[in-house]
């Protein structure tokens, strides 16, 4: 299994990748934050800028409370 864009050959993922590991993607194309959705009650991922080996959080990860905040119930 790997990461790919439409029409491209998938890039292999590291063999030692485990649940909970972080993966950095240089670009996500159409699946960027602006196109993200919470329709499955999955929070959007954080947006992190990396420059010269330093990371800066631009947008924090959404948590369950963020997703439920606007829910008025039945």
From TrEMBL:
Its domain of life reads: Bacteria
Question: Which SUPFAM superfamilies does this entry report, sorted A to Z?
Answer: Alanine racemase C-terminal domain-like
Cite the InterPro entries for this sequence: Ala_racemase/Decarboxylase_C
- Cofactor(s), names only, from the UniProt record: pyridoxal 5'-phosphate
> Record's Gene3D superfamilies?
Lyase, Ornithine Decarboxylase, Chain A, domain 1 (2.40.37.10)
List keywords of the entry alphabetically.
Answer: Pyridoxal phosphate
- From the Swiss-Prot or TrEMBL record, give the protein name: Diaminopimelate decarboxylase
